Amino acid sequence: MELIPGSRFRGTVKYIRAFIFISLILTFLFAACITAIIALAKWEGAPPLAVPQTTVFYADDGTKIGESDNGQTRYWVSLHDMSPVIIHATVAVEDRKFFDHYGFDIKRIVAAIIADIKAMQKVQGASTITQQYARNLFLTLDKTWVRKLQEALYTIRLEVNYTKQDILEGYLNTIYYGHGVYGVEAAARYYFGKSANELTLSEASMLAGIPKGPSYYSPFVNETRAKQRQKMVLQAMVDSGYISQKEAEQAYRTPLVYSRHHEIVQKPIAPYFQDAVKYVLRTKIGLDERTIEMGGLRVYTSLDPNMQAIAEQQIEQIIDPSSAIQAALVAMDPRTGEVKALVGGRDYEKSQYNRAIQAERQPGSTFKPFLYYAAIKQGFTPSTEMRSELTTFTLDDGSTYTPHNYNNYYANDTITLAQAIALSDNVFAVKTHLFIGEDQLVETAKKLGITSKLKKVPSLALGTSPVKVIDMVTAYGILANGGKKIEPVFIKKIVNYRGETIYEATQHEEQVLDEDAAFVTTELMTGMFDPKLNDYTTVTGQTIAGDITRPYAGKSGTTETDSWMIGYAPQLVAGIWTGYDRGEKMTKPSEKQYAKKIWVQFMEKSLQKEPVKSFTPTKGVVGVYIDPDNGKLATDACPVKRLTYYITGTEPNEYCTDHMQKKKKKKEHKDKSSNWLEKLFEWF
């Protein structure tokens, strides 16, 4: 059967109409999708342009002490602060039609697909500057379809909400130039030792070629390949109309002088302190790692560069270079809690373990001031007496405990509390601890900011529970300021990349100790530097007393494995710990003197330009002169008199009579001698 004439034509028309209809529907849907995407981009608004930037740390005097770049260096500069040649070079080689497309270069995409198909592998990229910026700014580098879709959406958001100048500026500040350097400003400084606005055509064309493959085209990796890439960049600039062929050839021939400062390994400033600052940023202020490392923050710290240098210098000079002993130091202003110097070890390159804030070691007798403060609150006074003799204590559970004094020296007589703290008598301390109740010392230590776990045992009075250096210095700072609570302050202020202050340190004043008892404790702690308490023994600070030029309160502490010295003037408190990391015993006498020597030299040099200040008595105390040997009111007959402070109403009212008989006999002998002489003169 034959077809009806014209039926083939009608069928063709039918297919054409269907094709047109479907095309119109698809076009409408495509247009609707594009409109919806653009509307969504507008509705979501402009994405933030907070690109990764280097966070900079400043000392208390405004000097830069470091950058938190995780091995990466980033700075943000505007297009106006970049040389035009670096802008032209980048656009020419990366995205010649940047100012003409809307985020995607369709022709480049098609060409890249064809090239990849021919080569049967990915050989050509088609990402525009906007796409690369979106990737650098917001996304991870995982190669998934979800990531590619996110990249496309971010690209549209950037194009819809920002100008081409904004996008180009962001891109130039985020691209990677190798060797941990991000952004054109950092690259200019790193490779040529100058700012981005000073780059020449030759330098700019070299830099613009690096991002294609930083580990391949860096002149510091292979200068021959880098020069070949530079030639391609210059030719791209010629093809784009930015420069002439003659200018390109001249720029290529111009010798490049590279900056080699990056090869000089500079000793970091206060590296342990900077680690502590980063820890505070994470834990106290709550910033995430990305913000800390690449948020472009300006972190103004409490560090005093001069004190930090003194601390490091004294540790280096005083400890034997051949010794494996470690050291930690913390110094702070007791009025504010601001940490002025911190050393966490002798060599940061060898060990980043921060012994000042991480390690817990036995404090020894440096724990005793907390005990004696608690005792004074319970009614003890500087004149309270107990016997110092070898004593075995029987505890509630039937066990026994026998504390020993240093070198097994015991007075075998009564001594006062003032003598006990100056001589660091262990028997007196344990007796006091058991008398007032073991919980009192724990409660006092916690009030003073000790965060470590403390055991309620007799030996706690002798500092057997490990503690942190930073906590001990903070506690002494509270005693120094009259009992007001302080916490270590490492960061005074943080400013974000927009110049907005996002954090500022504040101290909430809270009286956690009785100010009168705190002052009496402080005055007791000055006793360790007294020249002599009696005829047969010297105080624990005698070895450094000759180096002291101002009033200090302090306490040393020594165990078999640890040596401490903590003390303060009204303006500064500092604590030093020395010992072996693995807890080996310190067998050499000189090793046990390191902490004291470092402390006194640090304090004296740090306060050299500061006025000499004494500790100001509080309103609730009274000072009287006593005989330090018995704690009674001193008389003219007493050979040694010491001004000692008591909480008003607890001062002694009994006068010393120990020396009156001796003085009387001496006077009678003098009188007899005088009478004999008179008789002799009369005979003549």
TrEMBL record:
Keyword hit for Transmembrane helix: yes
GO molecular-function terms, A-Z: penicillin binding; peptidoglycan glycosyltransferase activity; serine-type D-Ala-D-Ala carboxypeptidase activity
Catalysed transformations (reactions): [GlcNAc-(1->4)-Mur2Ac(oyl-L-Ala-gamma-D-Glu-L-Lys-D-Ala-D-Ala)](n)-di-trans,octa-cis-undecaprenyl diphosphate + beta-D-GlcNAc-(1->4)-Mur2Ac(oyl-L-Ala-gamma-D-Glu-L-Lys-D-Ala-D-Ala)-di-trans,octa-cis-undecaprenyl diphosphate = [GlcNAc-(1->4)-Mur2Ac(oyl-L-Ala-gamma-D-Glu-L-Lys-D-Ala-D-Ala)](n+1)-di-trans,octa-cis-undecaprenyl diphosphate + di-trans,octa-cis-undecaprenyl diphosphate + H(+); Preferential cleavage: (Ac)2-L-Lys-D-Ala-|-D-Ala. Also transpeptidation of peptidyl-alanyl moieties that are N-acyl substituents of D-alanine
Transmembrane intervals: 18-41
Residue ranges annotated for the Penicillin-binding protein transpeptidase domain, each copy included: 328-571
A single GO BP: regulation of cell shape
The keyword Transmembrane helix appears for this protein: yes
Family matches, as SUPFAM superfamilies: beta-lactamase/transpeptidase-like, Lysozyme-like
NCBIfam families, per the entry: PBP_1a_fam
Source taxon at top rank: Bacteria
Cellular location(s): Cell membrane
Primary subcellular site in the record, as a coarse category: membrane
Family: In the N-terminal section; belongs to the glycosyltransferase 51 family. In the C-terminal section; belongs to the transpeptidase family.
Protein name, UniProt field: 1A family penicillin-binding protein
A Pfam family annotated for this UniProt entry: Transpeptidase
InterPro entries named in the record: Beta-lactam/transpept-like (IPR012338), Glyco_trans_51 (IPR001264), Glycosyltr_51/Transpeptidase (IPR050396), Lysozyme-like_dom_sf (IPR023346), PBP_transglycosylase (IPR036950), PCN-bd_Tpept (IPR001460)
